[in-house]
Write a structure and sequence with these properties.
This protein has two domains: 157 residues, Jelly Rolls; 165 residues, Jelly Rolls (Sandwich), CATH 2.60.120. It is built from four helices and 25 strands. By secondary structure, it is mostly beta strands. The strands form five sheets. Strands 2, 12, 13, 15, 16, 17, 19, 22 and 24 form a nine-stranded mixed beta sheet that branches. It is 10% helix and 31% strand. The longest helix has 14 residues. The site of fe (ii) ion has 5 residues, from loops. Fe (ii) ion (FE2) binds next to loops.
């Protein structure tokens, strides 16, 4: 018997159903522009999950500004322990920050299968599959960072029964294939890899050159037939990327290198984010943002975003088209002179040679 949606009700109260859900979760919710290091965020016991956690719903997530938004959270599994078995009607992609362990996946139509993960692994939980996560180490906690479509789904459906106790099985997404989490992947487009598991995104090497936004290489992972996706991007020593802007929700996690990013709404002074491995930031909706490598190694980041290129929620993207042509990218020759001069100063301070094209 379906229960009324009384447990998650936000409409009519001035807040959203997702806000009411967050309150019910009972763990800290961090806001703001960025988190210096996700490894240092205080966590609290998380009754629903069975471990500890915290939400990191930054200003740029889109949760308060957009109909389509993803949230972000840290999830800790105690040493030698496991989380509660669960299923839910929102997509989820998880990245392993620390530790190692395993995930069981099953449904009424598919037998249980287990895959193992380690620090640096990235995987998706196939939509609404039953799953349980285990810590494979007896002495250390495992820490994962997750992004999910919970805000969008909970606000649209506003029914706890629908989200958490739904019997529908998406066999079109996952039908119990033995090799589903093997991580081989299949190239399905230019710098586009369909895969449900990546063993270590920090060392993943099949990135392709992409000069659209300055020197660098990237690849996008299309996981679990999701409408959300992840890409990794790497750019060389002594270089920075072109500024651009877009919809909210691109959660940028620094995987390697040292540098800073600038973020600004049109016509305003930029905010400067000095990052290191473990920094997380989400450029707010339509804010320009620009990434700068000031270290002695290539800089690598990963971006979780509510935008698959295979299963699109929007037909047309103008993110890498110049502002001059109606797009959302500032070409190097059009940027303010202070962008380059600040970068040169920062690199000089680190003894790094600037390798940008002459203006
Ligand atoms: Fe971006």
């Amino acid at each position: 018997m379906a229960k009324a949606a009384e447990a998650i009700v936000g409409w009519g109260t001035g807040s959203t159903s997702y806000d009411a859900f967050l309150e019910q979760e009972g763990i800290p919710v961090i806001g703001g522009l960025w988190v210096e290091n996700v490894l240092e965020v205080p966590l609290a016991p998380w009754k629903r999950k069975g471990g500890k956690g915290a939400y990191i719903n930054l200003d740029g997530s889109g949760i308060n500004t957009s109909y389509i938004a993803i949230d972000c959270y840290l999830l800790e599994i105690p040493p030698g322990g496991s989380l509660n078995a669960e299923r839910y009607m929102y997509e989820e992609i998880l990245f392993v920050l620390k530790g190692r362990g395993a995930t069981d996946i099953w449904s009424a139509k598919t037998k249980k299968q287990t895959f193992e993960w380690q620090e640096g692994s990235l995987f998706t939980i196939p939509l609404n599959s039953r799953h349980q996560l285990f810590n494979g180490a007896g002495a250390q906690p495992a820490l994962l960072l997750g992004c999910s479509f919970a805000p969008t789904m909970i606000n649209l459906m506003h029914s706890e029964e629908y989200i958490f106790r739904n019997d529908f099985i998406f066999t079109d997404r996952y039908a119990g294939q033995d090799d589903y989490f093997r991580g081989d992947g299949k190239i399905i487009g230019k710098r586009l890899l369909e895969t449900n598991f990546v063993a270590d995104v920090r060392a993943f090497d099949k990135l392709g050159d992409d000069p659209t936004r300055g020197l660098g290489r990237n690849i996008q992972f299309e996981m679990g037939c999701n409408s959300m996706a992840v890409h990794i991007s790497e750019f060389p020593v002594g270089t920075y990327k072109k500024a651009h802007r877009h919809e909210p929700g691109a959660h940028v996690l620094i995987l390697g290198g040292q540098g800073y990013s600038l973020e600004w709404p049109e016509g305003e002074k930029p905010a400067k984010i000095d990052w290191e491995v473990g920094s997380l930031f989400v450029p707010p909706e339509r804010w320009f943002h620009q990434h700068f490598n000031t270290g002695s190694t290539p800089a690598r980041y990963m971006a979780f975003k509510p935008r698959s290129r295979k299963f699109r929620t929007k037909g047309k993207f103008m993110n890498d088209v110049s502002l001059k042509h109606g797009g959302n990218q500032i070409e190097f020759e059009d940027e303010g002179p202070e962008i380059r001069s600040r970068y040169e100063r920062e690199c000089a301070g680190n003894g790094v040679e600037v390798r940008m094209p002459k203006r």
